[in-house]
Design brief:
This protein has 175 residues and is of the alpha+beta class. The protein has one domain: 7,8-Dihydro-6-hydroxymethylpterin-pyrophosphokinase HPPK (Alpha-Beta Plaits, 2-Layer Sandwich), CATH 3.30.70. Helices cover 26% and strands 25% of the residues. It contains 5 helices and 10 strands. Strands 1, 2, 3, 4, 5 and 10 form a 6-stranded antiparallel β-sheet that branches. A two-stranded antiparallel ribbon has the order 6-7. Strands 8-9 form a two-stranded antiparallel sheet. Strand 8 and strand 9 form a beta hairpin. The longest helix has 14 residues. The two termini are 14 Å apart.
């Protein structure tokens, strides 16, 4: 079973609604969804706070590119508009493919410009790692190590306190 971890984020419009729509759009492949977290913006401070989550999805034989194409469709459905002058600017929905594993459990490695795997900055982002550990407590980021270790290492350890759990907000989990 090919599986992937996707990171979800939204800081424009109905933030929770955008996350829920993404989870709904993945219902046919969704294994589990994390809790919802509010996080400060990363890379461009002049914007609203984000809601973030992570999901595990799986489908037999699905190549990594399938997950990227699904991410793009979810973003398009949320009317995501990319501002070339603000790479890390605000967005209705951001869906990043963080890591993908083949049916046999081997991690997929890719250096394609559109699909670098594992995600090249995931190990540096508390807003990715903290939700991910919800759905895979003993998870490993290929090439970087255990999620629990990454959360305790700088610079992430200094940012974890800014990642605020919102247990009153829930996303649906799958199969």
């Amino acid at each position: 079973m090919s599986r992937a971890v996707l990171s979800l984020g939204s800081n424009l419009g109905d933030r929770l609604g955008h996350l829920r729509a993404a989870v709904s759009g993945l219902a046919d492949v969704l294994v589990v969804a994390s809790g919802v977290y509010e996080t400060p913006p990363w890379g461009d401070a002049d914007q609203p706070a984000y809601l973030n989550a992570a999901v595990m999805v799986a489908e037999p034989g699905a190549p990594a590119r399938v997950w990227l194409e699904r991410a793009w469709k979810l973003e398009a459905a949320a009317d995501r508009r990319r501002d070339p002058d603000r790479r890390f600017g605000p967005r209705t929905l951001d869906v990043d493919v963080i890591a993908v594993w083949e049916d046999d459990g081997a991690p997929v490695l890719s250096d394609e410009p559109e699909l670098t795997l594992p995600h090249p900055r995931a190990h540096l982002r508390a807003f990715v790692l903290r939700p991910w550990i919800d759905i895979e407590p003993y998870g490993r980021l290929p090439g970087h190590g255990w999620l629990s270790d990454l959360l305790q290492a700088e610079p992430v350890a200094g940012e974890v306190g800014d990642v605020r759990a919102l247990p009153e907000l829930a996303l649906e989990s799958g199969r």
